[in-house]
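Practice problem 4.
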């Protein structure tokens, strides 16, 4: 078993019922293997692997109570049915936990099954430790795991299958484990599955994560989908009918269906756009899968079908996605169009061939299958991506945690296609700038970039680039990277190259900065003292002397105005907003201070260590919460289960996650922040404060309100006892005339 998913280590003999269950599942695996096993040797090795695994895991049970061997059996079936891998992968899946959890060694596996399978099992065994280790070691291990990508991608695919089965059976895990596992899944495994082209599995991983992290929201969306199903399928039928006729008349062999979006993607959209379910208009897409006629290129057939459909429904011109001519980096090919359907509704139509469908569903594995059949041995999208991963892995300066964050961004981003002056196409992530493009070409081109010609027009290197742009980078030997460049790049490669350069450069700049300041101070006849820095640092927005020196040395700031700074009184900066700071915010609860409110959060733990309310999500009683043990302070930070920061932490330091709950008997107050926006009229802010402090008798800690063009917006921090209090405040404030919304701040 994985150390991650400790089974109940009782060596309870399997009952006859268990044996029936096991052999039933093995039969099913053999059925599935019919499509991949061809020789007697194939069947033999699968059987031997099963018997060895069964013997090795004998008597051990999973947390759910099932015999342990049901897990490798299920993983093997996912590998062959859902990913489309072959016999060796089935065998490696059956054996994937044997070396890790039993007394068998890799050498013994090699003797029994040969070197290839032994090395796969070895890879899987090494990976088993990845998600149990703590701290940055986990990140370091993840990096190692990705290194196996370059050896044998199948190892990662099996690991994804392993994770999928564990997610499917997550219900029997305690909540703290569920958070750790779902965090890793949403943070790493789903993006990885996506990147390897496993759409179906990626979607299921996301849906399952949502189900355990936000059970209510998951259930609500699921129910609403069920309730709207009848009317939706009626609409789809009406929409599809004329297409069906037209395509038939044209002699095309095809299937057409309506696909409902995944619960997770609906949920994400609701989050992103802050809209209710009812306002998500693109709940489904129409998919047309055709069996291509051999004489015409698939590509042309896609466009032919597109033109037949757009004869019936008008297309939205800016919503054509052509991944037929230029596939996505994960190999995905299809033609997507959005057309105006009946009842004024935009409908997305996806057109692809059977082969494209196979690649879309099974990703990498299907891709290899077709690649072997084709004559072309060109470096394709996957190869290019693997090359990039390898490059990133070889970047020695990056620490493991940074690497993980960077790697993750390379997994998830949508791509655009741009062109070099010679017309060569390059894929860049959405949001990339000309500078990213420069670094993509070569580190030296990036380091020396001063401008870009985008579609023959001169632009700044910070200009975001768009799909279809043709870009030429203008360089100069006198140019070099500046710290603010980091804020203008989207790719890991560019960011890392700039950082590398600056690190080297920083020390030089500090020295240079010191010289410049010394010289200037001599002019003024002022000795360099702590007093000087107290004035200079804030004036030049620097936190430390080194930061100031290196900015100065790099030429990012100059000392032209320093005379004024030295004469100025430190605290005379004007504030852009006005602030109400209430003198005694805690009158209800009797003189507690801020520190006190952040402590003593009651939990299940008997010896009551210290707790901190995480400032990133500020949970209050009534929120579902989870604890994170901070290794430095030794305290437990209490986060909302929905907190993004928690997800990030849990994916990297899962073992520090612990269950906590609010105790019901302590009356404490908690800080919570409201966002508010509305029409600025005379007296409205006073009215709002009166509603909160007067009517509701809730204490305000502070208000930051900005007003512009007749609109005010800002934040109000209040002390509340629990979520009911907070909802009451929100309710009342939202009812004040002129208020557009009042809501709890997300983070
Ligand atoms: Mn496993």
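Answer key:
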């Amino acid at each position: 078993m994985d150390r991650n998913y400790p089974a109940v280590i009782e060596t309870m003999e399997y009952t006859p019922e268990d044996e029936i269950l096991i052999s039933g599942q093995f039969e099913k695996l053999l059925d599935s293997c019919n499509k991949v096993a061809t020789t007697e040797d194939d069947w033999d090795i699968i059987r031997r692997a099963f018997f060895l695994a069964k013997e090795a895991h004998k008597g051990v049970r999973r947390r759910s109570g099932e015999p342990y061997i049901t897990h490798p059996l299920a993983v093997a079936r996912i590998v062959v049915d859902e990913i489309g891998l072959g016999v060796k992968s089935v065998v490696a899946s059956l054996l994937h936990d044997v070396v890790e959890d039993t007394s068998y060694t890799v050498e013994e596996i090699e003797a029994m099954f040969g070197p290839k399978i032994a090395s796969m099992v070895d890879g899987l065994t090494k990976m088993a430790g990845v998600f149990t280790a703590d701290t940055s070691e986990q990140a370091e291990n993840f990096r190692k795991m990705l290194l196996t990508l370059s050896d044998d991608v199948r190892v990662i695919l099996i690991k994804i299958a392993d994770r999928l089965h564990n997610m499917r059976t997550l219900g029997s895990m305690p909540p703290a484990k569920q958070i750790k596992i779902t965090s890793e899944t949403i943070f790493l495994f789903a993006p990885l599955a996506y990147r390897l082209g496993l759409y179906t599995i990626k979607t299921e991983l996301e849906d399952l994560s949502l189900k355990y992290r936000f059970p209510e929201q998951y259930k609500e969306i699921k129910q609403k989908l069920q309730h709207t199903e009848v009317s939706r399928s009626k609409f789809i039928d009406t929409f599809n009918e004329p297409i069906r006729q037209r395509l038939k008349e044209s002699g095309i062999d095809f299937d057409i269906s309506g696909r409902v979006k995944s619960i997770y993607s609906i949920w994400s959209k609701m989050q992103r756009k802050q809209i209710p379910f009812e306002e998500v208009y693109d709940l489904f897409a129409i998919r047309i899968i055709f069996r291509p006629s051999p004489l015409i290129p698939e590509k042309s057939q896609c466009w032919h079908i597109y033109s037949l459909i757009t004869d019936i429904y008008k297309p939205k011109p800016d919503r054509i996605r052509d991944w037929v001519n230029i596939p996505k980096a994960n190999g995905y090919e299809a033609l997507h169009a959005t057309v105006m359907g009946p009842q004024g509704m935009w409908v997305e139509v996806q057109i692809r061939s059977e082969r494209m469908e196979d690649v879309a569903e099974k990703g990498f594995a299907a891709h290899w299958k077709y690649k072997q059949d084709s004559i072309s041995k060109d470096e394709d999208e996957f190869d290019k991506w693997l090359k990039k991963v390898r490059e990133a892995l070889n970047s020695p300066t990056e620490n493991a945690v940074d690497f993980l964050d960077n790697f993750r961004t390379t997994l998830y981003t949508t791509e655009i296609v741009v062109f070099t002056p010679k017309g060569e196409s390059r894929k860049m992530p959405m949001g990339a700038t000309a500078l990213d493009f420069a670094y993509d070409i070569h580190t030296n081109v990036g380091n020396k970039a001063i401008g870009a010609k985008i579609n023959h027009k001169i632009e700044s290197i910070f200009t975001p680039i768009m799909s279809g742009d043709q870009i030429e980078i203008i360089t100069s030997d006198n140019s070099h990277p500046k710290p603010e460049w980091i804020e203008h790049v989207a790719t890991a490669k560019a960011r890392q190259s700039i950082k590398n350069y600056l690190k080297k450069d920083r020390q030089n700049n500090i020295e240079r900065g010191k010289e410049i300041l010394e010289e200037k101070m001599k002019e003024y006849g002022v000795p360099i003292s702590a007093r000087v820095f107290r004035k200079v640092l804030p004036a030049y927005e620097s936190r430390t002397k080194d930061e100031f020196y290196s900015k100065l040395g790099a030429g990012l700031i100059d000392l032209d105005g320093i005379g004024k700074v030295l004469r100025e009184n430190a605290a005379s900066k004007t504030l852009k907003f006005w602030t109400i700071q209430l003198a005694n915010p805690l009158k209800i609860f009797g003189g507690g201070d801020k520190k006190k409110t952040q402590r003593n959060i009651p939990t299940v733990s008997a010896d009551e260590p210290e707790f901190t309310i995480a400032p990133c999500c500020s949970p209050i009683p009534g929120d579902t919460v989870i604890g994170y043990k901070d290794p430095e302070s030794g305290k437990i930070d209490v986060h909302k289960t929905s907190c993004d920061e928690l997800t990030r932490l849990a994916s990297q330091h899962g073992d520090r996650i612990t269950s906590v709950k609010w105790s019901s008997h302590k009356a404490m107050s908690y800080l919570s922040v409201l966002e508010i926006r509305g029409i600025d009229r005379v007296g409205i802010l006073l009215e709002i404060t009166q509603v909160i402090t007067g009517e509701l008798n809730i204490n305000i800690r502070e208000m930051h309100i900005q007003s512009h063009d007749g609109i005010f917006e800002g934040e109000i921090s209040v002390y509340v006892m629990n979520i009911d209090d907070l909802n009451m405040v929100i309710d009342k404030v939202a009812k004040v005339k002129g208020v557009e919304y009042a809501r709890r701040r997300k983070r």
